[in-house]
Amino acid sequence: MKRFFQTIRNIFSIEDLRVRILNTIGFLIIFRLGSFIVIPGINPDHPSLADAGDTDGILGLLNTFLGGSFSRASIFALGIMPYISASIIVQLLTFAVPYFQKLQKEGDSGRKRLNQFTRVLTIFITGFQSYAYIRGTIDQGAIIDPGFFFYFSAITILVAGTMFCMWLGERITDKGIGNGISVLIMIGIVSRLPAALSNEAVSRGMNGALLFIIELIVLFAIVMGVIMLTQATRRIPIQYAKQVIGNKLYGGKRDFIPLKLNSAGVMPIIFAQALMFIPVLLVGMWRDTEWGTYIGTTFSDPYSWQYSLVFGTLILIFTFFYTAITINSNDIADNLKRNGGFVPGVKPGKQTAEFIDTVLSRITLPGALFLAVIAILPAFAVKLGISQNFAQFYGGTSLLIMVGVILDTLQQIESYLLMRHYEGMMKSGRVKGRSQFAAA
């Protein structure tokens, strides 16, 4: 305990880190306050909004990600999800359209242009989803005056709310700690955890106390499994050739490239979940049609086998996709060659890139499968009698996002401590987050 308080003291003794933590807390407070501000023109006391925390199905899961703002019809009702959908589309375009491929290779200027496209696309997606949200999700009786002016102002407010959430996420990334977009999603999830945990305990009662303890033990085991998945790495050994420069001998050291079992982190989960929300929001405008009813019924239940199958498949696809765009084996091989490094038994250059690709493919497949299995665990938890609100944290997307984001944030804090020659947060070693390659 003494070491823990000493670590906290060290964290706040570093001015830059202290400012970043306080900035992050301030941005998150603004985000949470905005989730309680109801859209003007909607009656917050209407019965349909009174039970904000009791939403079931896929909308309940979306409500969890947004910290309850979805069911409260707040100005942040759509949160950051439209921005994630736009990011998915733009990243897909970088693979399919030569113009976007060219922008991706132009460095900072190209990334800025891609960010501009993402922001503009976010506005269009949010506008479309805002209309679907108001028409298909909000009870029309909760709208005080459902006229043209209300729809226009509500859509404008929802678009502005999403863009403001996007701005908050960017500010957290630049001036705070962690990936801002992921942190916003995580804080929404964490805000719902205490209520879900207490409701599960109350529903079990004294007679079910032992069963509740077993649930917590199994949940702890799942958390450990998720941490193992996040931390697991495959180290590729690197040997640097000896070079004589002047009268000194350089090089000759051994190093390694740490390829993570789950190099994509939580992004495949966020991407897949964002796509799974779209059908439900869109069919709200055509809920009276036969096909609209079928799609809405199928994708509104995140615990059905159809939803789990599609969701798991999307996670597999996005894991390979995101790994491919974040880890460039050709760049790694070129950097090794320029610095006089090589993989023992493998020729530098093209063969090294192919070797890294082969290793990456072999470790990504089991990582993606494990990620998909954990993501659909809540469906099995519900079948075993666990309440839906608590089952969302019983493995699944919520737990994966929380663990991944917390580990990434701790890794950044750990880096600040080590740079200032303070003792790290973990006695056994560093917090291994999403770090850079040793050879890059």
UniProtKB/TrEMBL annotation:
Gene Ontology CC entries for this record: plasma membrane
Bilayer topology annotation: Multi-pass membrane protein
TM helices/strands, residue ranges: 21-42, 75-97, 117-136, 148-169, 176-197, 209-229, 264-286, 306-328, 359-381, 393-410
InterPro entries the UniProt entry points to: SecY, SecY/SEC61-alpha, SecY_CS, SecY_dom_sf
Keyword Transport (UniProt): yes
Cell compartment(s), UniProt: Cell membrane; Membrane
Keywords: Cell membrane, Membrane, Protein transport, Translocation, Transmembrane, Transmembrane helix, Transport
GO annotation (BP), single: protein transport by the Sec complex
Chief place of localization: membrane
Keyword Nuclease applies: no
SUPFAM superfamilies, alphabetized: Preprotein translocase SecY subunit
NCBIfam families reported in the protein's UniProt record: 3a0501s007
Assembly: Component of the Sec protein translocase complex. Heterotrimer consisting of SecY, SecE and SecG subunits. The heterotrimers can form oligomers, although 1 heterotrimer is thought to be able to translocate proteins. Interacts with the ribosome. Interacts with SecDF, and other proteins may be involved. Interacts with SecA.
Family membership noted in the UniProt record: Belongs to the SecY/SEC61-alpha family.
Functional summary from the UniProt entry: The central subunit of the protein translocation channel SecYEG. Consists of two halves formed by TMs 1-5 and 6-10. These two domains form a lateral gate at the front which open onto the bilayer between TMs 2 and 7, and are clamped together by SecE at the back. The channel is closed by both a pore ring composed of hydrophobic SecY resides and a short helix (helix 2A) on the extracellular side of the membrane which forms a plug. The plug probably moves laterally to allow the channel to open. The ring and the pore may move independently.
Listed name of the protein: Protein translocase subunit SecY
